[in-house]
Amino acid sequence: HSITGVKIYNAQNPESISYETFREAYTSKSHELHSKVKPARALAKAVNFGSQYRIAAKKLSTMLFVVESEAQVMLDAKAEAFPVAEQWALYEMAQVKKAGKVHTMLGAVRHLREALNSDDRIVSGKADRQAISFRIQGSAAEMTKLAEGRIWKAALEQRFDCEIIAPVHDECVASVSIEDIVPFLKEMHACMIENYAGMTLPIKSSIAFGKSFGPADQIEIGDWPTDEAIERGLAEL
What average pLDDT does the chain have? Predict the structure, then answer.
């Protein structure tokens, strides 16, 4: 999101900044540019997800309350930052049109031939977006379900003073006593990062905790629950 965010920021501001400066400003509340780069990253998140599911500038403009030309600038910024993602989406849609169906990475199927072949452009266009969405979000849902299954099999609720609450989009949310937080985070994190569908890329899972689930209370400690990272988070808490 920061890669797209810096592209959006530079397109909207007369003075360009580097990705490194953008990240530093975003992560440091005391940075002079923090208040400017934070909304750019929020926009980038919406653009990244929306564009990957083939959203058009007109629709994006209504979502973000901007004019259509500005929405197109954001979509162009994302395409420039991630050209291979655009190629992948076009390839996937072509494959779905040939087969008339789309699979998740573990093989769940959604049949779309009838919708794709519809004379109604709204219906066929929606099917295009559904194909990409199912491929990405269906696979992501499988990842989350498998992680929740591992958490259950690890009997974390029986072994720690905790409650596994629910998955929220791509997060697994739990409540845990501060006395158990160190071993609990390490075991829950291990459940989150096991390999999925034979992928060669490693699975990563960021970690945050706080006194409540509210974003203002959450403290990010990175991708690994090391003793040092947890201690830093607890000190900030």
Answer: 93
Residues 139, 106 contacting (CB under 8 angstroms): yes
> Which residues have CB under 8 Å from 8's CB, separation 6+?
40, 43, 44, 47, 73, 74, 77
In tens, the pLDDT along 24-66 reads: 999 998 999 999 999 999 999 999 988 888 788 898 999 888 8
Q: Which two tokens stand for residue 212?
A: 């409540």
| Mean pLDDT of the region 126-149 | 92
Question: Which is nearest to 43 in space by CA: 89, 74, 82, 76?
Answer: 74
Token output for 227: 């003793």
- Evaluate whether 104 touches 135 at the Cβ level (below 8 Å): yes
- Is the pLDDT at 202 greater than 90? The verdict is yes
What sign results for the dihedral spanned by CA atoms 191, 197, 203, 206? Answer: negative
CA angle (232 as vertex; 228, 233 as ends), nearest 5: 120
Structure tokens, 180: 């158990």
pLDDT of 122 strictly over 90:
no
C-alpha pair distances (Å), 36 with each of 12, 22, 42, 190:
11, 10, 11, 36
Token pair of 74, please? 């954001």
Structure tokens belonging to residue 86: 């655009």
| Phi and psi torsions of 72, nearest 5° | -65, -35
Q: What is the pTM of this model?
A: 0.79
CA neighbor of 189 nearest in space, from 201, 207, 171 = 207
